[in-house]
């Protein structure tokens, strides 16, 4: 399964956050698309509409387990997807911004 490191992500890379609503509301990466894993199959069309046609989908969760499952599913659908190793925990630890929906500083739940 393709995997990327948090430090390899660049501004503007497409990020799909598959954590649940309470985790998202506590804090997330700015600009990420949020589709909880529990709703992912039913809301798959939202991803296909939002994802770049020729770009990679970087999938993130808290630590990497749920995002790995979604990454495998996407690969089976022919989508260029990569799991973000270490997830939002590592995202925050490396100093990347974590925000709430209203733009305030957030935290990883």
Account of the 3D structure:
The protein has 109 residues and is α/β, with parallel strands linked by helices. Helix content is 29%, strand content 17%. It has a five-stranded parallel beta sheet. The radius of gyration is 13 Å and the shape is globular. The N and C termini lie far apart (26 Å).
- Helix-strand pattern, N to C? EEHEHEHEH
Query: Count the helices. How many?
Result: 4
Helix content: 25-40%
Strand order of the largest sheet: 1-5-4-2-3
Radius of gyration of CA atoms, rounded to a whole number = 13 Å
Mean pLDDT: 96
Q: Could you tell me the number of beta strands?
A: 5
Largest sheet: 5 strands, parallel
Distance between the termini: 26 Å
Low-confidence runs? none
Shape: globular
Helix vs. strand class = alpha/beta
Q: Indicate the proportion of strand residues.
A: 15-25%
Topology:
Elements: E1 3-5, E2 14-17, H1 21-26, E3 33-34, H2 44-50, E4 57-60, H3 65-76, E5 81-85, H4 87-93
Parallel strand pairs: 1-5, 2-3, 2-4, 4-5
Name some characteristics of this structure.
109 residues, single chain, 4 helices, alpha/beta, 5-stranded parallel sheet
Short description:
The chain is of the alpha/beta class and 109 residues long.
């Amino acid at each position: 399964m393709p995997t990327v490191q948090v430090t390899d992500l660049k501004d503007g890379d497409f990020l799909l956050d598959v954590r649940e609503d309470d985790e998202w509301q506590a804090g997330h990466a700015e600009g990420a698309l949020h589709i909880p894993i529990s709703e992912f199959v039913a809301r798959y069309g939202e991803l296909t509409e939002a994802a770049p046609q020729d770009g990679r989908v970087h999938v993130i969760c808290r630590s990497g387990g749920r995002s790995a499952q979604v990454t495998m599913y996407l690969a089976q659908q022919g989508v260029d997807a990569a799991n973000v190793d270490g997830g939002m925990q590592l995202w925050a630890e490396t100093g990347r911004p974590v925000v709430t929906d209203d733009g305030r500083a957030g935290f990883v739940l």
